[in-house]
Amino acid sequence: MTAEQRDWTLPKLHEAWLPREHPLHRPRHGGKQVGALICAAIFFAAPLLSLGVGARPAEIENRPLAQFPSPLAGWSFFTSLPAWATDHLVFRDDAIAISDGVSRGVFGEPPVLGKRGGSDNPLDTGQVPRTDFDTSTIPRVVEGKEGWLYLGEEVVARCKQSLPMHETLAQVRKLKDGIEASGREFVLAIAPDKLTISPKYLPERYPGKDCVQRTTDEFWNLYRNEDYVLDLREPLRNREIELGSPVYPSLDAHWGDEGGLLMTKAIAEHLRPGISKGWVVKPGEPWRAPADLPPLIGRSGDIDGRFYTVKPDGIRDQARNIPQDFNTPLHLATTSGPGTFGRKVGMLGDSFTIRSKRYLGAVFGDITLLHYGTLHNKGRQQAMEMLADSDVVVLEIAERVLTTGNVVVFTPEVADEILSELSARPKR
């Protein structure tokens, strides 16, 4: 080895332990590093400190707050911490409201909130996204005509898929075939997106507009001829004509009770054609609730709706209030008589199921509901037990979620576990 080569040999000591005068010396934590570490410590400690003084974070997005990751989860413990810390920062909703006020008041335009470079879908399976469109230009909320708001994720879903849609459909068919092979019936109810049913209030120009029509047409062309799929678009549009008003509120991403009732009827009719022939359905008490889209852009607003009475036998109203939470199995079994469905039903759904529960409980005599998002964690075993105990498996999925391919129930690991459990406990 030459003298020149020896001069370039790296020292055996870590660079932080070298003498300060050594040209390769580098302190373990420089001034900027220390500052960054302090900021990180404050960011992750703030949620814990706020809980200690009684402050609680608000759920300003239409999903549960991220749970504290398990220390036993390995490296994912560290990668999951930022989402937990962000969700549990108190006053986050106030900060968004202040940003909105300043942006509109000073600059005359909405703030840049919630733009994304990747999916923030809580049901994200971690698959590598495939897209030619920069979805970071799509806002969290698309502001439309006459004060209408649309969830930006509906646009993102059409411009960015984790899987090509025909591959997602192949996963759906595999699950369906396995469920039917176990002696059970399978129904897939697709809750259409708001922009699918009420597109006329979308702005003339917005990021991703070209993706929307093209992908929406492709999606429904794939699914509408599957005999186990409930296409609710036409019933919802017909109901709008009957009511003379939209079935999706202007400030909310979800349908009202009209959509929940229509889905309930469609499921029941698919399983037993003619079952609703004797039903008597009438408008009931009005209700008002906070809208889910305004808080995402620092605003507030309410939506108005109406409950419906449902008399399956034409005499008794069997619709009733049902607890909103179904992150653990929610069993409904107080309905019976003519016009009701008595076989055991296990239903996996999402936020669109919320407006359906009072009507599902009025029509199905033995039904258990569970949010499919729980399949990511400890809810998987509960889901498999529920489905194995059922004669019928119903799956409700929002159009935007199914479009992306980020559906936990169709991932090979989860689907294989479910089908293994069902095949071991067949229904004959």
What does this 3D model show about the protein?
With 428 residues, this protein is an alpha/beta fold. It has two domains: 35-90, no CATH class; 145-424, no CATH class. Helix content is 38%, strand content 13%. The protein has 14 helices and ten strands. It has helices at residues 3-7, 31-52, 76-87, 92-107, 152-159, 165-181, 194-197, 209-223, 233-243, 257-271, 357-363, 379-388, 399-404, 412-424; strands at 141-143, 149-151, 185-191, 229-231, 280-290, 302-311, 330-332, 345-349, 367-371, 392-398. A six-stranded mixed β-sheet has the order 4-3-10-8-9-7, with helices on both faces. The protein has a two-stranded antiparallel ribbon with strand order 1-2. Strands 5-6 form a two-stranded antiparallel ribbon. Strand 1 (141-143) and strand 2 (149-151) form a beta hairpin. Helix 2 (31-52) packs across helix 3, helix 6 (165-181) packs parallel to helix 14 and helix 12 runs parallel beside helix 14. The longest helix is centred in the N-terminal third of the chain and has 22 residues, at 31-52. The protein is globular, with a radius of gyration of 26 Å. It starts with a helix and ends with a helix. Keywords: Alginate biosynthesis, Hydrolase, Membrane, Periplasm, Signal, Transferase, Transmembrane, Transmembrane helix. GO terms for molecular function: hydrolase activity; transferase activity. The chain crosses the membrane at residues 34-55.
